[in-house]
Specification:
Shape: elongated
Structural class: mainly alpha
Distance between the termini: 19 Å
Number of domains: 1
Low-confidence stretches: none
Number of helices: 3
Strand content: under 5%
Mean pLDDT: 84
Largest sheet: none
Helix content: 40-55%
Order of helices and strands: HHH
């Protein structure tokens, strides 16, 4: 979680996050993407299947944010 507020050009009441590290096999993801070709969209499950650590991390952040809202 990054600092927020006016010093960082963000509203005081905003939660700001920044994801900086991407631990997945980019070669595998690119290979699959290339196999589909440029004329096809990536399937909806692409990030979950080919970038699993990123997907899991985002899901954990989402859960944390939703848990904070319920307190």
């Amino acid at each position: 979680v990054m600092a927020g507020g006016p010093a960082f050009l963000r509203p005081v009441d905003e939660l700001t996050t920044r994801l900086c590290y991407v631990p997945f096999d980019g070669g595998n993801a690119l290979s699959y993407s290339r196999s589909l070709g440029m004329d096809k969209d990536l399937p909806e499950n692409f990030v979950k299947d080919y970038c699993t650590p990123v997907y899991d991390g985002i899901q954990a952040l989402k859960k944390w944010v939703l848990d904070q809202k319920s307190h």
